[in-house]
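Class, discuss our next protein.
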Amino acid sequence: MRFALIAAAAMAASPVPALAQEAYLDDRSTPEALLRSLYNAVNRQEYARAFDYFSTPPAASVEAYAAGYAETEHVALATGAATTEGAAGTTFYAVPVAIRARGKDGGEQVFAGCYTLRLSNPQIQGTPYTPLHIEKASLKRAEGALNDVLPAQCGDGAPVEADAALSNARAMFAATYGETCTLAGDPEAAEPQVYSIPFNYSYESADTPKHEARLFRFLCDRGAYNELHAYLLADENGNVSPLQFATPELDIQYENDDREGKVEDLRIIGYKTDGRLVNSEYDPETLTLLSHAKWRGMGDAFSSGKWIFREGSFSLVRYDMDASYDGESEPVTLLDYHSGP
């Protein structure tokens, strides 16, 4: 019996009730990113990190702060447009916020209000350096969907300049994946991880100013042991488009047509494209995207790929697979254009 890779990947990525842990996020580049990092720390139960995002301690101690989340399983976040005011070398941001806290008992509570953040001018700071941090939060109980209870504005300052590419990426993700990503309407999925990619084309000289692309990673689905991500790319002019990744199509033959048995033959029979990657991460140091799809929870059967950014897009350079359900991790390299001789 022959099994197509797409069937195995679809089975592995099917959403089930259990949740995988969120990928680590620690980003102070914008007020919204800092607040996403705060609740990322809460959801990962990294309470010391969450506690440290505040300039004024939010509780008497880290232990007391953690105790406040003892019965919380997950917090979803929605943010509105920030406003900003400046005074004596310091910038204050006011950010509308709505959160939905799901308890371990399955109950949910919604809160809405405003966060105030502060950044002293980085150009005039000395050491120790003080990054963007949270000054205070004012949240009250609310009823309804997060986007419905989200305050229209916080503070009387000027609106922070909008990120057009990010707005376009959000809209394109909703339009492209709204019907296929079960989490597309969730506020957590609406806030992607964003990466800047400086690069040059191969035909340009070494002193040519670098181009800059931006990569947006959106959470699409989450299951017991797999997360599914969709990617969009903005070019240096801010034009956004969904990414499609080259992926081998495989023919897998098992001994006696027993899928739990020994693999008799494994070969590439063509290539297709996929707009979503499983358990994927982008490495800005190597300009590579890595994906590792578990076919079952113990991870003995899996497929993994590596795509490298060059010439303005991502190319498949390595693909490994272990198609046997034997309790061992013994991958076979099906293609490798990346390793040295």
